[in-house]
Amino acid sequence: MTIPVVSIAYHSGYGHTAVLAEAVRAGAVEAGAEVHLIKVDEITEEQWTLLDASDAIVFGSPTYMGTASGAFHVFAEATAKRWSGQDWKDKLAAGFTNSGSKSGDKLHTLQFFQILAAQHGMHWVNLGLHPGWNSSEGSENDLNRLGVFAGAAAQTNVDEGPEAVHKADVATAEHLGHRVARTAAAFRSGAAAA
Fold first, then answer.
1. For the residues 55-83, what does the mean pLDDT come to?
2. Average per-residue pLDDT in the chain?
3. Do the Cβ atoms of 18 and 12 come closer than 8 Å?
4. CB-based contacts of 84: which residues, under 8 Å, 6+ apart?
5. What is the pTM for the complete model shown?
6. Which helix (DSSP H) or strand (DSSP E) does residue 134 occupy?
7. Distances (CA, A) of 176 to 78, 117, 145
8. What is the pLDDT of residues 23-63, one digit of tens each?
9. Domain 5-193 adopts which CATH fold?
10. Between the N and C ends of the chain, which has fewer C-beta atoms within 10 Å?
11. Which of 57, 64, 175 is nearest to 122 (CA)?
């Protein structure tokens, strides 16, 4: 059985989202995937080819002004070449984001990723976790402490650097990477059996 290939296509303006991308990578590697980190603002033709050959693509961006960053939007528009041929149809997709506020309209960024994936005919992999930190017995150290279902969401204070990304948010991103890799492996096995 061949191992699944997961690519993480992300932009990070100040390094916080890069921390999450590394966490998604770690989770996917731990689950047995071959993983590629691709900075969308520096993407090469070779990396486009890696995306085309991937079983799953995980989208990542900070949330700026209620949506993905401008650099990620440029990448998303460039995927139109893949859209016209449905080159990414039936691949898996997932997403993660970070903002300075607890809400910060991160859900809109994740929904932007979901719509991008849907336009490509991809299958969305959600976080698959109950919300954390929503009872008196919960804590800010719970997985999915921000209670987002669509993907991995993180909050980092705007006056702190990448080292301040909350450990629970890093662990949640690792969980997402693990889930994507395991789902990709199951899809691969199913396709081989068919």
1. 97
2. 96
3. yes
4. none
5. 0.96
6. none
7. 25, 16, 14
8. 999 999 999 999 999 999 999 999 999 999 999 999 999 99
9. Rossmann fold (3.40.50)
10. C
11. 57
How far is CA 47 from each of CA 7, 39, 40, 43, 105, rounded to the nearest angstrom?
9, 9, 9, 6, 30
Instruction: Tell me the two tokens of residue 46.
Output: 């070779």
| 3-state secondary structure at position 51 | helix
How is residue 131 written in tokens?
């919300």
Q: Which amino acid makes up residue 87?
A: D
Give the Å distances, CA to CA, from 45 to 49, 53, 78, 184: 6, 13, 12, 24
C-alpha dist (Å) from residue 38 to 15, 137, 157, 186: 14, 39, 25, 24
CA distance 86 to 161: 39
Whole-angstrom CA distances from 18 to 1, 30, 96, 98, 121 are 31, 18, 11, 10, 27
One-letter amino acid of 114: Q
Cross-strand pairs, 39: 10
Q: Chain-centre distance of CA 42, in angstroms?
A: 18
Find all residues with CB under 8 Å of 90, minimum gap 6, and list them: 121, 122, 123
Structural Rg of the chain based on CA atoms: 16
Structure token digits, residue 62 = 């900070």
